[in-house]
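@channel sequence for tomorrow's demo:
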Amino acid sequence: MSSERFHQLTTKHSNLRLRAAVQRRELGSTMNEIEHHLSGLDRGIGAAQRMIKNPALLVGGVALVALIGPKRLVRWASRGALLYSTAKRLMRLRRPD
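C-alpha cells (generated this afternoon):
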C-alpha cells in the first residue's frame, strides 16, 4: 500500500471517528430532552392516578364543572396553561446556564 493511500485512509478514519463522536453527543442531548419530557408526562400521569383514587376530588371536580360550566372552565384552564407556559419560559430565560 502506498504512503499516499495510507494517509487517505488515516484521514478518512479520523473524520469518521470525529463524526461518530459528534453524533454520539447529539444523540445524548436528544435522549436527555426526551427523558425530560417523559418525566413530566410521568409526573402528570401519577398526579392523575392519585386524583382518580380520591373520590372526594372526583366529586369536587364534577361539582366544579357543574357550578362553573364546562365552557368557562375550559376558558380558565386554557388561560392558566398559557400563563404557566409563559412563566416557565421566562424563568428558563432568567436562569443562568
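heads up for whoever presents: The chain has two domains: 1-53, 55-97.
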